[in-house]
Structure formats: C-alpha cells, structure tokens
Amino acid sequence: MALEGLVAVSSFRAPRESLGVLDADTTAALVEGMADIAIVVDAKGIISDIAYGSDDLAADFSPDWVGQPWLSTVSPETRPSLEALLEDAAQNALTRWRQVTHPTLRGGEIPVQYRALRVSKTGSLVAVGRNLQGMAALQQQLVDAQQALERDYWRFRQVETRYRLLFRMVSEAILIIDAPTQRVVEANPAAGQMLGETPTRVIGRPFPEGFDNESTQAINGLLAGVRAAGRADDVRARLTDSLQEFLVSASLLRQENASFLLVRLSPVIPDTSAAAPMPDAKARYLRVLENAPDCVVITDADGRILTANSTFLSLAEVATEQQARGESLDRWLGRPGVDLNVLMANLRQHTTVRLFATTLRGEYGSTTDVEISAAAVRNGERPYFGFFIRDVGRRLSAEQPTSPEQARWLDQLTDRVGRVPLKELVRESTDTIERLCIEAALKLTGDNRASAAELLGLSRQSLYVKIDRYGIVADQTSESSGPSKK
Predict the structure, then answer these.
(1) How far is it, in rounded angstroms, from Cα 218 to Cα 270?
(2) What is the pLDDT of residues 148-162, one digit of tens each?
C-alpha cells in the first residue's frame, strides 16, 4: 500500500519491519475486523468492493452497491459531507472523520462515520466506517430527557406561581415559621393585617409577638407539641391591645433537613344566640353522630356546610369545623361542579340518595374513595341536606413501582429542580443515562466488555474508562472474547 504523505498524531516507528509481513488477505481481514463497514472506491468515486462487519448491517443496505457511485448511496442532505471527504482524500493520504447517512431497505436511515485512506497512486481509496446507531439512540435519549426536564421545570414554576398567588389571596391569616428559631419566614397579607403590620415587617420577627402572657404561653406550648409529635390541639389567643380572640392552629412541614411550622390564625366569632335546652335523648343522638366512624355533613339548600363531624374534618384535612363551615361541600368532592349537582338534583326529586360513589379530596392533596348516602329534610321553605360519607379506600391496593432504582433517581432529580441550575441537572442526568446504558449493555452481553463496547458503538478503551469512572462492577467480565458462535 502506498502511504506517502500520511500524517498521524502517533504512528509506528518502524512499520516496514513490524507490518511488512502483512499480505492482502491479512490486511483485508484486519480492515473487516476493525470496521463496521469498509468500502473500496476507485479514482472516479465508483465502489469496487465492500465488506460489512455484521450480517444485520449487510441486511439493511442494498446488495448492489458495487459498481455504483459512492455518492448515490448516501442521503441527499449528507452528500456535501461525502464530497468534502473525497476532496480531502485527493489532497491527503488520510482524511478526517466525516458523518453521512445511508438509506436502508426498510425505509429508515443509518448514520455512519467514515475515514478514508488512499492506498495507491491511481487514486483508489479504502473508507473505514463506524455505525453510529447506538450513539444516535443515546443522543435521542438525552434530548428526550432534557425536554422532559424543561417541561418539569416550567411545571414546577407554574405550581410555585399558583402557590404564591393563593398564599396572597387567601383570606385566612397564614404564617410560615422556622421551627428551630420560631422566626417568621413568610406571611400573607391577611396575617399582616391581623397583626397590624405589613407582611414585609412581620418577616424575620419572633413568633409569638404582641400577644398577652397567657396567649404567648399557650402558643409556645402549641408549637412545642407540633415539633415533638407533629400535631397538637388548637389554642385560643388574644393580642395585647385588642379584645379580638384568635384560634391558632399549627402543622409541621419538612423540606430536606429544614423544619417549618405552618401557623393559621382564625378570628373567633362569638355566638350570641341563646342555646335552647336540649332533651337528653337528642343530645345523646348528636354525640353519636359527632363520634361516628363515617362522615356526617349537614348543608343548606346551596350545598354550603352548616356542620360536620370530626371524621369528615379528618378526611378533608381541615383543622376545625369553623374552617369548613360556610364552604361548599363541592370543594372536597372528587369532581368539582359535577358530584354535588347530581346529589342535590336527586335529593330535591327523591329526597334520598344511596351509595353514590366518588372520591373525597383533602386540603393537602390526599384522595379517598368514598360512598355517599344522603337525605333531604324539609324545614319550611328552607330545606337541609344530610350527607353520610363512608370511606371505602381500604379496598384499593397500592401500586408498586416497576423500577425502584429509576423511580428513586427521578424523585431525587425532580426534588432538586429549582435549587440546582438546569445545566447541572442535565449534566447529571446525562451521566446517569450513560451509566444505565452501559449496565444494560453488560447485562445483555453476559458481562462481556468486548461485546458491550461493540453494542454501544464504543471502543474497548472508552468503555473501560467509563466503567472505571462510574464504578460499575460486573460479576463475570470477558475482555478478550466476543459472544460465542454456534
């Protein structure tokens, strides 16, 4: 072979002594073994011979390439790249790598990266090609993962925007307090108005502040109970310079290693109506309904809650009955605007409804499958409706994740959105995808690194470097032999 003018970064010091014994058959076997596809092209660009590294690749391409112009075998959009390779081969003995795509018999395209070597003074070339299907698949997975991350990022941004908007618009006073220091981290406008300050001036101040001594002790006890047990009974409190009483409730929030307290302040409206004496039988009956294991809710003609027992408050994740009173029952039913309208229409027509299946949504996002029975009670021109809601969620079985490792990785990845730059998340996800692909290739090839490298379209050395980088340990790895052939 004529290799005049060959320039390489690193070359044999004495090729004639080292490789001079190679004949044409040995050289052809060497080229076939190291290339996925090898093409011999004459000076006019006509394919004179071709060899494939695998039967699958040979089945994808047309068998009548020999005698055809090399340019006619590639897709039109990559033809300029092949023309540039031929021009490079006319000036240099060894060309740079250039990528083209070949149409297949199945209607698809296979990307191949070629490097050409001039083997005679007449202009004949040997082009060595690498199949880039594995790399293209990895690149597509990376693009899909990046697009999914961007969608998740914007979805979380929208959720945060809705949270901020609701936090500001809600009429109930809400404070978010740092649990260890008991200093206000966030406060909505209603809390600032209730405490006589702007929300920005409330942030950073200790809580409770501005309450009388008895109320301060009660609130501190409430917060200590929530930090210790996760929940505590609501307490009443009064500001020092006001006679207005508040019902203070708190719940614990955990974010990574930080703990916060969500504190709600609800004004207590005194009941000035005189309660009529109640017979003992009626009182016992009401106590049974209050402590019933099923939810009991009484609404007016518009579906707004007049009273509810503790079981309903627990499923709806509402701290006190006062927070539910006056709200529409539709707020907690599974299909807003549908379920309650159906129930009310049937109650007005038939006065009773039995075993209506739906779901009950909690304030914090939990859902429970329930069955609702209801009855209408006429009281002059203003009817009342009683709803009996039974929890049937125990009939459902929890769905087990199919891939705990991938689910855990996705959970960790999505939890870091908003705290870590998107570029870093994409880089980490790319590394994870690459590691999973290498592990899958090793598993498919029976831990044969040579076959895994061929499957991934990598050199053995590149695969060894990546295995060491990711700390992948195989049970049995064969480095020198490929898959056995029958």
Answers:
(1) 20
(2) 888 888 888 887 777
